[in-house]
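input
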Amino acid sequence: MRTYSLVVVVEGILLLSSTAIAAIGGSGAYNVSVPRWQWDPKLHALANRDRGQYLNLSSGVDVWYTSFGKIHSTKTPVLLLHGGIGNSNQMFNQANYLAETRRVILQDARGQGRSPFTNFDAFHYDDFARDALALLDYLKIPKVAVVGWSDGAITGLNMAMNYTSRIERVFAHGANVQANQSIPGLNDPIINSDSGSLDSDSRTNGTTYAANGRVRKRDDDAYTCEGLSPMPERCSAMENGVRNMWSSEPNWGPEALTKIKCPVWSVDGDHDVEVQRNQADAIAAWVPFAGQLILPQVGHPALLQDVTFFNFAMGYFLDMEYDGVLPSY
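output
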């Protein structure tokens, strides 16, 4: 049974949503009184039963990875990159789906998930990109498509900027390109909310107007750092380190993103309250000939909240024929 819990933050006070309490009970289905963008689905195993191994990088950092699926497929292999303070099982729906037709590669980013936080002190997106490239070198994979979520999407864009010959295309879901994410707030005439995104629920009758409450997730999932890491005592330090990175990175403008020479879709949920809509707009505007996809009635974890639509869009993008950076219709 898929379960989830919600915490509503209103004027600094934590309250468990009454609709969430009702939804947690007896049925295996989600209670429709809780909007989809507030769902917090649990993570599950990869199709290879989470079998993986460690790669010791030249920097001394150990990174856990796994690869499975149709190893000899003529389709381009896909590198799936998870979100911050997460692990590869966040991408289990996408990995298992894509593995039916092509090779998939996943890694737990340095210091996160099964990869221990040791032999380095600080987190940087440049290091995530270099680690991923080192893994591809080790596996002798010359080129991949990237499907990334949040930090993974940022890493995918980083790779497309700096290692252009190795990246075929990027499906960037929930990325931001500026750490400060200039929030429109109450000065925006359309998206009139503190989060800079659609921020509505049953309490607001489904409208977004000067919202003063935010829904936060409470993590009761088995796939946590403490449950996976060989150094669980370092999980708290890891979280602090990643959050410190978020305070200053990334910091890209059009000059950086115009270096990308492969097809990119900038993807976000229409109710993402973690990344403001202007970030998806910036990626679509600054990456040459990029496409933009706003997924309906989902939030930041859209890949978990509406798997059917997300996987369809992802598969459509990955299978699309391109002439350079422009699609061939």
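quick obs: The CA atoms of residues 270 and 296 lie 6 Å apart.
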